[in-house]
UniProtKB/TrEMBL annotation:
Source species, domain of life: Bacteria
Pfam families: Glyco_transf_20
Keyword Glycosyltransferase among record annotations: yes
InterPro entries reported in the protein's UniProt record: Glyco_trans_20 (IPR001830)
SUPFAM superfamilies to which the protein is assigned, alphabetical: UDP-Glycosyltransferase/glycogen phosphorylase (SSF53756)
Enzyme Commission number(s): 2.4.1.15
Stated name of the protein: Alpha,alpha-trehalose-phosphate synthase (UDP-forming)
Similarity comment text for this entry: Belongs to the glycosyltransferase 20 family.
UniProt GO molecular function: alpha,alpha-trehalose-phosphate synthase (UDP-forming) activity
Keywords: Glycosyltransferase, Transferase
Length: 463
């Protein structure tokens, strides 16, 4: 069995429960093969120059954690800059928010080159390397340039935009070429595979070889959808633990005569949070029976505060939330509880279970794990209803959710109204089907599917 090497922007200690399902699932696989997890530490060091990094290693059980400190300038250009002010907005179709500063790209390449230099000496010949996400797209090309011949797979957690949106990215040819240094590229959905393939064919002149293979720049890469799942058992265990149960009971008692709706996201413009608040406002306006009754708890955990677009979003949201409470609130009822803080992970299942309606309404999302967590947390005998944006990757799998267009405020308000008043039998059959699919396609299924495909792929770039 090959040793697994996981590379991601940030490391998580897989033994800590707060790390979440993905870290635990990757940690399991790493522990099985006695693996290596490599990534940035998130810390910046004043004594480092651009392009320099300080590697630290530490053993966590059977897993070697290797993390790299960067200098502040590199962190700003690579992480805040190219990754989160260029790739994130463009891949979420938000060209209006992208900041195409050439210095960001320079920093992004410099850091990827440095990661390749630091990682190479840690590698063994038979390693299987799995690179994660948009921060690290050129990493395989940098490793190959240093002579790395091992199989390298890449998984993109965010969506792929259509070809003409991708083409707006200056140097998109360079970025596309970078993908051909991988043996396998995994994407979240079939829509992403379609966009990716069309971009490669029209912009990079790639040939489709069949069996999900694309050929360009003298290399062949396999591209396929591997929709990510959650660790259902871990989340159910979390739901049964005292913190989640207390959270659930406290909310149920407080809202015994009212209906609770829940939104829980990172505060990110891709998540459609203002659109959700507008739809909720429309619900109160058009269906007045919900006044003094429906309450939306909206947890928007702080994220990327140092990127401009996020500060603007925060301000917009504060205005919208304040207005709704000012206009509709009464002495004993506030329609909206907006919480701009992170809630402890162990309480999340309890929150989900207490909510009659789960609102997951991104404008665009690679997958969206909250949609899956909400379903898993429900009481099978009296389940809540998931209202899900058709633009979340999860919508390809979760078709029994109430699918909505988050840009259509009235349509979304109508769907929320239907969810709030859905008969028990319909809630149960929808929930049963959703749960069955989420169970079958959990995080372990995702990881095994990807790693098996990577094992089977021939080292295209080394050929
Ligand atoms: C990227 C892609 C893709 C949220 N708020 C709190 C909290 N959370 C947890 C949720 C969930 C996770 O964070 C968020 O996962 P998502 O999938 O919704 O979103 P991204 O962070 O944008 O992740 C996404 C994912 O990668 C995996 O491939 O699905 O499309 O964008 O687990 O529960 N957890 C705690 N407190 C909070 O306030 N503890």
């Amino acid at each position: 069995m090959s040793r697994l090497v996981v590379v991601s922007n940030r490391l998580a200690d897989p033994r800590k429960p707060a790390a979440g399902g993905l870290a635990v699932a990757l940690g399991d696989a790493l522990a099985r093969t006695g693996g290596l997890w490599f990534g940035s530490s998130g810390a910046t060091a004043a004594d480092l120059a651009p392009g320099e990094g300080r590697l630290r290693t530490r053993q966590a059980g059977k897993v070697l954690l290797a993390s790299v400190d960067l200098c502040a300038e590199d962190h700003a250009a690579y992480y805040q800059g190219y990754a989160n002010s260029v790739l994130w907005p463009v891949f979420h179709y938000r060209l209006d928010l992208a900041q195409f500063d050439p210095a960001y790209l320079v920093g992004y390449r410099r850091v990827n080159q440095m990661f390749a230099r630091k990682l190479l000496p840690l590698l063994r010949e038979s390693d299987l390397i799995w690179v994660h996400d948009y921060h690290l797209i050129p990493l395989a090309a940098e490793l190959r340039a240093l002579g790395c011949r091992q199989r390298i797979g890449f998984f993109l957690h965010i969506p792929v935009p259509p070809p003409l949106v991708m083409a707006a990215l200056p140097q998109h040819e360079w970025l596309m070429r970078s993908f051909f240094a991988y043996d396998l590229v995994g994407l979240q959905s079939e829509a992403d595979v379609d966009h990716f393939t069309r971009s490669m064919v029209t912009e990079a002149g790639a040939q489709e070889l069949g069996a999900q293979r694309l050929h360009a720049y003298g290399a062949t890469v396999r591209v396929a959808a591997f929709p990510i799942g959650i660790d259902v058992e871990e989340f159910q265990a979390l739901a049964a633990a005292p913190d989640a149960v207390h959270t659930f009971e406290a909310l149920r008692a407080e809202y015994s005569r009212r209906q609770l709706l829940l939104g829980i996201d990172r505060l990110d413009y891709s998540k459609g949070i203002p659109q959700r608040v507008r739809a909720f406002r429309q619900l109160l306006e058009r269906y007045p029976e919900n006044r003094n009754s429906a309450t939306l708890v909206m947890i928007a955990s702080p994220s990327r505060d140092d990127v401009h677009a996020y500060a603007d979003l925060r301000q917009e949201l504060e205005g919208l939330c304040g207005a709704i409470n000012g206009d509709y609130g009464t002495l004993d009822w506030m329609p909206l509880r907006y919480i701009h803080r992170t809630v402890a992970r162990r309480r999340v299942p309890g929150l989900c279970r207490a909510a009659r309606v789960g609102l997951v309404t991104p404008l665009r999302d690679g997958m969206n794990l909250v949609a899956k967590e909400y379903v898993v947390a429900q009481d099978e005998a009296d389940p809540g209803v998931l209202v899900l944006s058709r633009f979340a990757g999860a919508a390809e799998q979760l078709e029994e959710a109430l699918l909505v267009n988050p840009y259509d405020t009235q349509g979304m308000a109508g769907a929320i109204q239907a969810a709030l008043h859905m008969p028990l039998a319909e809630r149960q059959w929808r929930h049963q089907r959703l749960l069955e699919r989420i169970r079958r396609h959990d995080v372990h299924w995702w990881r095994q599917g990807f790693l098996q495909a990577l094992e089977e792929s021939s080292s295209a770039s080394a050929a």
